[in-house]
From TrEMBL, chain A:
Pfam families: cobW, CobW_C. It comes from Pelagibius litoralis. InterPro entries: CobW-likC_sf, CobW-like_C, CobW/HypB/UreG_nucleotide-bd, P-loop_NTPase, Zinc-reg_GTPase_activator. GO terms for molecular function: hydrolase activity; nucleotide binding. This is CobW C-terminal domain-containing protein. One of its GO terms (cellular component) is cytoplasm. Zinc chaperone that directly transfers zinc cofactor to target proteins, thereby activating them. Zinc is transferred from the CXCC motif in the GTPase domain to the zinc binding site in target proteins in a process requiring GTP hydrolysis. Residues 324-341 have a biased composition (Basic and acidic residues). The keyword rRNA processing does not apply.
From TrEMBL, chain B:
This is Amidohydrolase. One of its GO terms (molecular function) is hydrolase activity, acting on carbon-nitrogen (but not peptide) bonds. The lineage of its organism: Bacteria, Pseudomonadati, Pseudomonadota, Alphaproteobacteria, Rhodospirillales. It comes from Pelagibius litoralis. InterPro entries: Amidohydro_3 (IPR013108), Metal-dep_hydrolase_composite (IPR011059), Metal_Hydrolase (IPR032466), YtcJ-like (IPR033932). It holds the Pfam family Amidohydro_3.
Length: 341, 539
């Protein structure tokens, strides 16, 4: 249950999990570099593991590194709620809070802390990304493998990291095992933790009127892995049509985000957020949004061939607006600064 | 007298209405020696006392869990038992995949047991047949126990190991499901389940149980729980408690309720310095709402959950575990010996049966302060609450059902009307009843704070409030896991409040449960747990 904060400014919280050596720090380094205009506040267990180009660092002290792109990285002490509450009291609210979960801790134990932050109007649990070491998974002992599978089953998105080093047979075996153990949780292959940042954070909703994805046109030489669709409308939409549309999204999308107003209640702006199979719809305040009737919606679809055309036409009919489409490549094809895995 | 320890500079919830919020509490020799204003308390104790500065934290009595199975939890869910509860393994398909992975690792003949198959939460479940389980594990005894513990599904090797054949008579109070030819299908229910699974537990050796028992104890201490019960006590359990105490393991105080399955059992008399005692006798009048073996006046809903996964017939109203006269013999015998009775009742028809019996017995042989307990009370009706109160019958509610199974309770089992009053703690409180709340470990995790949150919000895991009129205020909820729970186990004169002369079981919390958003009670941190005057857990 989400309770809307009065100003709609609850900060999304993204959890990054994974067993020791799975590549959590690589992913965090990658996200810090590719924040893409987002101001991240990242909380990690081992501060020393963050290993970024010195040029990116603005200031550094015992418990906090500030980066030139506006992101910060802080140590996480054992009281998660207090760490984050204290940080937000002393700093401007970031766009996203990223928290690294200890490799051996049960992620389910984060639940109560997340609820406390949500109820306090501080944060909004957004997504739980879990990293697996695709190259070494089957070399681990049975107990460790079972623990990893159990933890993975709590996540929204799985990253099969080091897939470049893994034999393709091992990756297929891991995919089969995960599919048996976790059902609907999407698994994305990556090297060096290089995952499309929009899969982690959700697509960005542009504030410009001619709404389109943030870096449209950025194409890679490789075949596209995902496709994103976006739409903006001048007026309100029908709630029932939207709900039907939203209900079928988990089958086709990793992530979707929208700011919507319904004809039934045109003065209320709502934030829709879908991560894997989990969707929320909550009141969004007036801060940072134009006082018009616009709805905006963006989604990242899974590779599903002919379904894409159908998905696009559904989007069009629900929003009755101009849609745009963009093929996204794997982030790993882009130039990166992070080095360790 | 040894040096006193003084607690001050914090919020103190004494749970004693005479001095609800004292400034200081002092303990010595395992007892509370002074409670009151800081000056008064310091006056009453020696000058060279030890001070615990609370720094604004909250001191209160240790939590009392009035219905649990602390040793049995270690047996049933400790390693190597595989956890397939829906919280860990969300679907039946995934649960079976996990079972198969374990079978692949096992040596032939190794006993394999999994806990948590769940017809309500594993919505893709199909009842695992004997032949299906034989196919999965041809070379190992394999058993899957339901998340409520009341039923198990076994393969042929497991049935053989437990010596359950076509010729095995079905014990009174239990079920051996059979096909048309009388051959067991692998599904067992009730007391027989617990008896035959001992064969699995024994196969894993003594050390396993000792290790897992320590974990079970740690869970309690981390949650600030200083008194628990063993609600299906069997005489051979005593060795493990004594061993723990002898090795100075901080075992919470244990109130034992010996399990009765027939009328002529010897109830063991134990009274070990307020650390372990025989509190009474436990009988299962019916089974689990999630298995379908409870007795109702109105039938279950007809849904895919009840018809396909629980295999109930349309119009199913269940029944009691024992024939009425057999049950009556048991109750008359143990109640007649002066024991406190603790009777498992879930369905309203079962509660009618038990209240009728209590009324009859009390008319014949009046007894003051008998504290006859009804356990769980899922579908107790308003009129039954009034009647129970008049008879002096105590009700303890298994409120965590709402959190974990609230969605299916409403949608799949009983419908909105009955769901709104499922585990009617609020009605019991309004009727003036002194109630307690319990987690029934191993079915849910032992935690007084979780119970408080469940009772004061009635929020389900799928995000709905199940019966807002049945919610408790925080003070009543806190009483229900401290002083009123102590009352239910007959120890309110020694436990459950910070009162001079009582035993020094305390807990320090980082926030005040009486002044915390009910939805965040579970997130309150236990800073320290003190048992019998010793700090036994520090965060």
């Amino acid at each position: 249950m989400n309770k809307a904060a009065p100003n709609g400014a609850r900060v999304p919280i993204v959890l990054i999990g994974g067993f020791l050596g799975a590549g959590k720090t690589s992913l965090i380094n990658h996200l810090l570099v590719r924040a893409n205009g987002r101001k991240l506040a990242v909380f990690v267990n081992d501060f020393g593991a963050i290993n970024l180009d010195r040029d990116l660092i603005e200031t550094e002290d015992e418990s906090k590194i500030s980066f030139r792109n506006g992101c910060v990285c802080c140590t996480l002490n054992d009281d998660f709620v207090r760490t984050i509450t204290a940080f937000l009291q002393g700093n401007a609210a970031p766009d996203v809070i990223v928290v690294e979960i200890s490799g051996v801790a049960d992620p389910r134990q984060m639940g109560a802390s997340l609820v406390a932050l949500e109820n306090a109007g501080i944060g909004r649990f957004d997504a739980h990304v879990y990293m697996l070491d695709a190259a070494n998974f089957f070399d681990m002992g049975f107990e460790h493998r079972e623990m990893i599978i159990e933890h993975a089953a709590c996540a929204d998105i799985l990253v099969l990291n080091k897939s470049d080093l893994a034999e393709s047979r091992a990756v297929i075996r891991l995919r089969d095992l995960i599919s048996d153990a976790t059902e609907a949780i999407p698994a994305i292959e990556a090297d060096f933790g290089k995952v499309d940042e929009d899969l982690v954070f959700g697509p960005q909703i542009s504030r410009r009127d001619d709404f389109c994805p943030t870096d449209a046109g950025a194409r890679s030489d490789h075949a596209a892995a995902y496709t994103s669709f976006s739409v903006s409308t001048k007026g309100c939409i029908h709630r029932a049509a939207f709900e039907n549309f939203a209900a079928m999204l988990p089958r086709f999308c990793f992530r979707a985000k929208g700011l919507v107003r319904f004809i039934e209640d045109p003065t209320t702006l709502l934030l829709f957020n879908l991560v894997s199979t989990r969707a929320t719809l909550e009141k969004f305040g007036q801060k940072n949004v134009q006082p018009d009737n616009k709805c905006k919606f963006v989604m990242i679809a899974k590779e599903s061939g002919e379904d894409l055309a159908w998905l696009e036409s559904s989007l069009h009919s629900v929003f009755n607006g101009k849609t745009s489409r963009r093929d996204r490549s794997d982030a790993k094809t882009k130039t990166e600064l992070g080095h360790d895995r | 007298m040894t040096q006193e320890t003084l607690f001050k500079n914090g919020i103190i919830n004494s749970m004693d209405s005479a001095v609800p919020n004292p400034e200081a509490v002092a303990i010595a020799d395992g007892k509370i020696v002074a409670v009151g204003s800081a000056l008064d308390v310091e006056d009453q104790i020696g000058a060279k006392h030890h001070v615990i500065d609370l720094h604004g934290s909250v001191l209160q009595p240790g939590f009392v869990e009035p219905h649990s199975h602390i040793l049995w939890a270690a047996k049933t869910r400790g390693a190597p038992v595989g956890d397939i509860t829906a919280a860990v393994v969300p679907t039946y398909r995934a649960a079976i995949a996990k079972v198969k992975r374990h079978v692949a690792e096992a040596v032939p003949g190794e006993f394999l047991l999994f806990y948590g198959v769940d017809p309500q939460l594993h919505t893709d479940m199909e009842e695992p047949s004997r032949s299906f389980l034989d196919e999965i594990a041809p070379n190992n005894p394999l058993a899957l126990q339901t998340s409520n513990g009341h039923a198990v599904f076994m393969n042929s090797a497991a049935l053989d190991a437990c010596n359950i054949t076509k010729d095995t008579p079905t014990p009174v109070g239990s079920v051996i499901a059979r096909d048309d030819s009388g051959t067991p299908t692998g599904r067992l229910e009730e007391a027989l389940v617990w008896r035959v699974l001992e064969i699995f537990y024994e196969s894993w050796g003594e050390n396993r149980l000792t290790t897992e028992f320590r974990k079970s104890i740690d869970t309690c201490l981390r949650a600030g729980v200083t008194t628990v019960t063993e609600h299906l006590y069997l005489p051979f359990y005593k060795t493990y408690y004594l061993q723990a105490l002898k090795q100075a393991v901080p075992l919470p105080r244990v109130a034992a309720y010996q399990q009765a399955v027939d009328p002529d059992m010897m109830v063991e008399r134990i009274d070990l310095d307020d650390r372990l005692w025989m509190a009474g006798v436990k009988i299962h009048a019916d089974g689990s709402p999630f298995v379908g073996n409870i007795w109702l006046t109105k039938p279950y809903l007809e849904t895919s959950t009840t018809l396909e996964r629980m295999h109930l017939s349309p119009g199913h109203t269940g029944g009691p575990n024992y024939p009425a006269d057999f049950f009556e013999m048991m109750v008359r015998n143990y109640f007649g010996q002066g024991w406190q009775m603790s009777v498992h009742t879930q369905g309203d028809r079962t509660i009618d049966m038990v209240l009728d019996l209590v009324e009859t017995i009390l008319e014949e042989t009046p007894r003051d302060d008998h504290r006859f307990r009804l356990e769980h009370c899922a579908l107790m009706r308003e009129d039954q609450i009034v009647r129970a109160k008049d008879l002096g019958v105590q009700c303890s509610f298994f409120i965590n059902h709402i959190t974990h199974w609230g969605g299916p309770i409403e949608d799949a089992l009983f419908g909105p009307e009955r769901a709104a009053h499922y585990m009617p703690a609020g009605s019991a409180h309004k009727a003036g009843m002194r109630l307690s709340l319990h987690a029934d470990a191993p079915m849910t995790v032992t935690s007084g704070l979780d119970l408080m949150q469940a009772a004061s919000t009635r929020m389900t895991n799928d995000g709905r409030c199940l019966g807002e009129n049945e919610r408790l205020d925080r003070l009543t909820a806190l009483k229900a896991v401290t002083i009123d729970a102590a009352f239910h186990i007959g120890m309110e004169h020694k436990l459950g409040s910070l009162t001079r002369g009582k035993l020094a079981d305390l807990v320090i919390l980082d926030r005040d449960p009486l002044d915390t958003n009910p939805h965040e009670l579970s997130a309150i941190q236990v800073e320290q747990t003190w048992l019998a005057g010793e700090c036994v857990y520090r965060r």
